[in-house]
Amino acid sequence: MIAASALCKFFGSGDTQVKALRDVSLTIAENEFVAIMGSSGSGKSTLMNILGCLDTPSSGHYKLAGASVSELDDEQLSAMRNQHIGFIFQSFHLLPRLSAAENVALPLRYTDTPTDEALQRAERLLQQVGLGHRMHHKPAEMSGGQRQRVAIARALINNPKVIFADEPTGNLDSKTSVEIMQLLTELHRNGNTVVMVTHEDDIAAYAQRVIKMRDGQILEDSACSV
Ligand SMILES: Nc1ncnc2c1ncn2[C@@H]1O[C@H](COP(=O)(O)OP(=O)(O)O)[C@@H](O)[C@H]1O
Ligand SMILES: [Mg+2]
């Protein structure tokens, strides 16, 4: 599913240049559940953004679902994201003026799906994540856990091949975090590939494989002992 070789990412230039990724190579198979760990600034988000086609590497090669991503232009990258990738972020990234259902349906605006069909699909997904009773509420009227469920439903609307989650429980209390992790575990069980960034051991324990990063490099890559 994912094949990255010798990825480097540099920000800035000269004396102030930051080497956020240094020669990172990894492969992730279909239906793996992977956690990427490491302290703040170790390059987790940078790696996730490249794997998720939100950003391109300074050098190195990246293939996703058979396509050479590192050779795509911006338009092709966004098509790749729309077709294959679902994102979940720490801060949910919902649009405040839209209802839950409208937020979930949003990615379909960039496809030729008719609006009523898009909303019906959104409502089905909201039911699946346990929010059937909150479809027409705005994000401000929901708890953090409910907002993250909306974001998960939105990530699923395109039937993505891979779900990327950057600190999905970073803004949630521990009880709500468990609920969100159970939901991600269920997605994995249903056949999704899940790649998640976290710096919490108990959250990483839900994954099957843990990749530890330090200073822009992979320090350790091991199966999870659970
Ligand atoms: N857009 C950017 N511009 C400049 N430096 C950046 C940018 N994004 C990340 N960095 C730097 O790259 C390094 C890795 O950052 P990041 O991938 O966000 O780490 P993590 O997610 O592990 O906390 C850090 O030193 C960070 O300051
Ligand atoms: Mg980060």
Automatic annotation (TrEMBL):
Record GO terms (molecular function): ATP binding
Gene3D superfamilies named in the record: P-loop containing nucleotide triphosphate hydrolases
Entry annotated with the keyword Iron-sulfur: no
Top-level lineage group: Bacteria
Entry keyword set: ATP-binding, Nucleotide-binding, Transport
Domain ABC transporter: 2-226
Protein's recorded name: ABC transporter ATP-binding protein
Native source species: Alishewanella longhuensis
Organism placement in taxonomy: Bacteria, Pseudomonadati, Pseudomonadota, Gammaproteobacteria, Alteromonadales
